[in-house]
Design brief:
The chain has helices at residues 2-27, 33-56. It is mostly helical. Helix 1 (2-27) packs antiparallel against helix 2 (33-56).
Length: 70
């Protein structure tokens, strides 16, 4: 889990550093195929890593709510 958190930290750091350029070249222009590809790769990676971390965190049994038929 700790290595995934390290990777997420680096990706978020990169996102924060390059956001001014992304704002200028992607968000302030008309969306085309290139922009859609760029955004899906860029933010798809961030979402994928967050989901991996969340899925690897163990939850104590008391916090798990099960839904059963009455």
């Amino acid at each position: 889990v700790s290595h995934l958190i390290d990777i997420i930290a680096l990706i978020l750091y990169d996102v924060l550093l390059s956001f001014p350029m992304e704002l200028r070249y992607i968000w302030k222009r008309k969306f085309g195929k290139g922009a859609i590809l760029y955004l899906s790769i860029r933010y798809g990676t961030v979402i994928s890593m967050l989901l991996q971390v969340l899925s690897s965190i163990s939850v104590p049994g008391d916090l798990i709510v099960s839904v059963t038929k009455p």
